[in-house]
Write the structure tokens for this entry.
Amino acid sequence: MKTIKLHNTRTRTKEDFVPISADNVRMYVCGPTVYDRAHLGNARPVVVFDVLYRLLRHVYGADHVTYVRNFTDVDDKINATALARQKAGSPGTLEQLVQERSDETIGWYLHDMGALGALEPNEMPRATEYIPQMIAMIEGLIDKGHAYVAEGHVLFAVYSWKKRYGALSGRSVDDMIAGARVEVAPYKKNPMDFVLWKPSSDELPGWDSPWGRGRPGWHIECSAMSYELLGESFDIHGGGNDLMFPHHENEIAQSCCAHPEGEFARVWLHNEMLQVEGKKMSKSLGNFFTVHDLLDQGVPGEVIRFVFLQTHYRKPMDWTEKKAREAEATLRKWRALTAGIEPAPSAAPSVIAALSDDLNTAGALAELHALFARVYALETKAVLNLEEYGSPEEAKRSFVASAQLLGLLSEQMGEWADIGSVDLSAHENRLADARVIAMQSKDFSEVDRLKAAFVAAGLEVRMSKDGVELVPGAGFDAAKLEGV
Ligand code: AMP
Ligand code: ZN
């Protein structure tokens, strides 16, 4: 079995990954707060952990991996959207409008992430479906002396866990207190204490609890849902590095105090941020565009995925149009030569090896380029010793299986590149005929008209004395050939 190495934020080293049980490898990833469409940055952890999920399934078997990603559907921003709708005259109670907003956003999210080729996790729990479990966990924390009730709130007492609080992100409680600039609520015993439960006003969504009608804090959601679905110890916990503090630190405090018999998550993986001009893409900075915007502009989801894979997950990355254009041209070339090819039973060892080295997706793409070069050489008979290199068919099958391990070149994602229905040879013949006529009449206007139309459709026009060749480039749009 191939050993996977992963960089564990907790130990700050690349470690051999050894699952608690190879029969059921368990991974939890913090999901989105569902108040609006996902921006491109939100898609980065989705693609990163999708690659890890695919790799784990490859190594341990598809039925031996459990991937959980939650939806945070309790949030002030969702409430605010619902309130605005109610004020604008939408029918229904506020609670119904909140639910409507969450449902709609979850639908968009799954559609957009599906377009990027992300497999759906095995479980996608919604916070609102786990309120009793959260209440039970909070009660346990109070019983054990790790939490206290104050003015309708329940707070986690960070001092009760002082020795380990901050270990993940490398901070000490005393330093944090010294550096804290947050306005401290008067009911907090300690400025670092964080909310497990807070009161809800009558209009806002709320649940009955031993501390009155209220709602959970954000951090307790992930602790309760991961415990319910994966147990007190599981293998991998993931999310963006913006969540390391305070969210993940608080999850660890809650889970380890509520279930000291377990270890909570063994390996912590954090993806770096997608940036815009050196700054994290975020809703609050306003420097964002959504995945939906890009798809709408005609950027295929597969191209977005390819661009993401070019940068290692622990490095910041920028989205540029140039990267997208180049990715599109590569994918078009790959798809054109491998259309209809059945994948081999397994990806090439070189691609698996790259991914197993802390998800070196850039390395895996480099291997794919090398495999493709071989496919191309065999196809064009540019290699002398065919036997040594295997058959073109086999090379293609291995190449396709390898690309599919990265979530590329699947049939479902290929519609955008579908040029099979367009007969370019008919267009090539028309241009060739027009050229013959023009040579005699010395009137090249029809040749120029056709060339311009083909270029406008995204084709490269290659004319030589041997004939005419039309090659689809980045941005090729078959629809634009109609009526030429
Ligand atoms: P949120 O809905 O803001 O909690 O974010 C959902 C997920 O997206 C979390 O795992 C965040 O870490 C991640 N995320 C948010 N912004 C970015 C970004 N600019 N680049 C990469 N990941 C991000
Ligand atoms: Zn979380």
Summary: The chain has three domains: 16-274, 321-416, 425-481. The pocket of adenosine monophosphate (ligand 1) is lined by residues 30, 32-33, 41-42, 44-45, 239-240, 242-243, 271, 273-274, 280-282 (CB under 6 Å). The first strand starts at residue 5 and ends at 8.
